[in-house]
Amino acid sequence: MPTDSPHMQAVQAAVVSATGKPAVLVREGASIPIVAEFKRALGLDSILLGFARSDDAVHSPNEKFNLASFELGSQTHAVLLDSFSQMQ
After folding, report:
1. Between the N and C ends of the chain, which has fewer C-beta atoms within 10 Å?
2. At how many degrees (to 10) do helices 6-19 and 67-85 cross?
3. Domains of the chain, with CATH numbers?
4. DSSP 60
5. How far is Cα 63 from Cα 28, in angstroms, rounded to an integer?
């Protein structure tokens, strides 16, 4: 997705609202096959927001996700959905 798109600007604003800092943009999604399928079948770009910490051991036997990360993600998504609802 173009980083200057209105949707990406809404994401940045939501992350700043929740954290006080801009999001770090990282090209991801190659390991999530549905992202490419959404683009192919629907022509839609996807936005993936991550709130895991480096010590969460994602997809390992001892995987965890801190409650604070969950709350931060929930807060960010609430702001983002409100922004999306106001777009033309």
Report:
1. C
2. 140
3. 6-85 (1.10.150)
4. S
5. 20
